[in-house]
Amino acid sequence: MATAKYIFVTGGVTSSLGKGIISASLGKLLQARGFKVTIQKFDPYINIDPGTLNPYEHGECFVTDDGAETDLDLGHYERFLNSPTSQANNVTTGRIYNNVITKERKGEYLGKTVQVVPHITDEIKRNIYQLGESGDYDFVITEIGGCVGDIESLPFIEAVRQVKWDVGTNNFLVIHLTLIPYLSAAKELKTKPTQHSVKQLLEAGIQPDILVCRSERHLPQDIRKKLALFCNVHINSVIEALDAETIYDVPILMRKEKLAERVLAKLKINHKEEPDLDQWKAFLGKLKNPTDEVEIGLVGKYVELPDAYKSIVESFVHAGAANECKVNLHWISSETINADNCENILSQYHGILVAPGFGERGVQGKIEAVRYVRENNVPFFGICLGMQCAVIEFARNVLTLPNASSTEIDAKAKDPVIDLMEDQKKVTNMGGTMRLGAYPCKLKKGSKAFSVYGKQNISERHRHRYEFNNKYLERMEAAGMKATGINPETGLVEIVELENHPWFIGTQYHPELKSTVLNPHPLFVKFVEAAIQKKKS
Ligand code: GLN
To answer: How much is the pLDDT for 96?
Structure first.
């Protein structure tokens, strides 16, 4: 197709209806028909990016290859579409204003009064067209965060209204995701909240083309008719989205409801071929028919909110399916673990993952967990801070350096086995100051890591400030902790593993950010395999 088509996904009635999953599912269905698709998310908050947000505020911060700290919905886009996103795929109100204010300070507005319309809305549209005009995509799906009617999302909604006039009706479509609640006392599905939210969109000058209705119950024909009548949409553009058993069912459910067909018809694209969803269905088949089951303990700090570790959770879903094994994840707060109760808490699991994190809280428990799995031959997977804890534990208990630590935890540590790089020491600003995004890594032949990846040169994503301190490398290796993945440009240690242990790997990078349905991450796949072995032994 010559120019990209623009699809916007708005939300009404409440938040948390799953706009990200609906957008990703539509993307998948179009991609399965051979179209090139990208998905973009606008977040109406003032932070420049979610990098400085506490995970309790907004869940995990997803990092792209180009080092952008982004909303966790981008993780869904990548897991569904199996293609990388970038900074251009996540834009916040803060970034828009920051760009406009920077231009204003440079005098680029030539003395004009800078206003929400047209300057902010132009900047929003620039970010939309930047993807559409790249020539890389047939469809740009833009998810507008928040609900229509929120003060914060008004400039975005106004920009969407303008896009229609810029690109013409055949290149523009709005999908409104809404809630149809069931009132058990009245035994009825209620359409009024949806009617109101569509009215709000209409007030802003936007007529949704398709309604996707989240509901606990099937939408009977009379409800669909009513929605069509009051919301000015065709009855076959009222799409039902029932609660799904897994998010990975949603593309299939949307296919049954003919969401992509409606989109193609509305955009006047003549495309009759059936989507190729064979691999997706094969994945679902394995996911839903496991022949084995393992219990994995996840030791972390934000255990009350599993969204804080979204990509890790999803990586286990992919790896479980690859092994035809149900992976039951058990969250363990690292603050509750100590030397005395460690065995009691951890001995029931077939594998332990020590999670990423920041700050001192809970680190001691993580170190105790590492000691337990090292001494008891339990499969271990340490990610980022988890890897750093493995290094500290080994230095303390095997190299007998009792004061070994990370300078993040103890700034004056006598043995800073994890430390800041020289150029990081000068940084005082909190946002965007980490080692972020994709870096190359070279694996040592003959190592476990090499056998897991089956190749020598890999690229993985990072998000951290502290690093393995190479001053201790020789001693660590001599005692059995090997650095088996090294950044070829800087010499930084990216992977550590233990020689005499069935499965003990720590990665300075975040492998969970690259696991997708079609490409489950090999480290997760092999870790689950090791847990299955542990269970059998
Ligand atoms: N806090 C550690 C660092 O900054 C680890 C970060 C992480 O686990 N993502 O290096």
So the answer is: 97
**End-to-end alpha carbon distance in the chain:** 56
Give the C-alpha separation, 92 to 87, whole Å.
Answer: 11
Binding site membership of 435 for ligand 1 (Cβ less than 6 Å): no
Residue nearest atom 6 of ligand 1, based on CA coordinates: 464
Burial class (CB in 10 A: 0-12, 13-18, 19+), 445: exposed
* Cβ(264)–Cβ(501) below 8 Å: no
Residue 510 CA: nearest ligand 1 atom is 9
pTM equals 0.95
- Which DSSP category does 120 fall into? I
- Rounded Cα–Cα distance for residues 32 and 145 (Å): 25
What does the pLDDT look like over 3-33, one tens digit per residue?
A: 899 999 999 988 889 999 999 999 999 999 9
Helix (H, G, I), strand (E, B) or coil at 116: helix
CA of 502 to the centre of ligand 1 (A): 26
Beta-bridge partners for 41:
90, 143
Cα(147)–Cα(26) distance, integer angstroms: 20
CA of 261 to the centre of ligand 1 (A): 44
State percent of the chain over pLDDT 90: 90
Ligand 1 center–CA 5 separation, angstroms: 40
**pLDDT for the residue numbered 272:** 81
Mean pLDDT of 237-262: 96
Using the mean position of ligand 1's atoms as its centre, give its distance from the Cα of residue 32 in Å: 37
In angstroms, rounded to a whole number, what is the distance separating the alpha carbons of residues 261 and 238? 13
Structure token pair of residue 32 = 């399965």
Q: Tell me the DSSP string of 440-458.
A: EEEEPTTSHHHHHHTSSEE
Active-site residue set: 384, 510, 512
Give the tens place of pLDDT for each residue, 109-129. Answer: 999 999 999 999 999 999 999
* Structure confidence by residue, pLDDT tens digits, 33-89: 999 999 999 999 999 988 888 877 778 999 999 999 999 999 999 999 999 999 999
Atom of ligand 1 lying closest to residue 466 CA: 10
The CA distance from 327 to 337, in Å, is: 22
Is the previous residue joined to 251 through a cis bond, with omega within 30 degrees of 0?
no
What whole-number distance in Å separates Cα of residue 129 and Cα of residue 122? 10
Ligand 1, atom 8, lies closest to the CA of 356
Nearest atom in ligand 1 to the alpha carbon of residue 359 is: 1
Say if CB 418 and CB 406 are below 8 A apart: yes
Cα(431) to centroid of ligand 1, in Å? Answer: 14
Partners of 292 in beta bridges: 325
Mutational pocket test of ligand 1: of 464, 494, 508, 513, the residue with most ligand atoms within 8 Å of the beta carbon: 464
Helix residue ranges, H only, 121-258:
121-132, 154-167, 192-203, 221-231, 250-256
Q: Is 357 in the pocket of ligand 1 (CB under 6 A)?
A: yes
Q: Is 408 in the pocket of ligand 1 (CB under 6 A)?
A: yes
For residues 211 and 51, what is the distance between their CA atoms, to the nearest angstrom?
33
Query: What kind and span of H or E run contains 295?
Result: strand 292-300
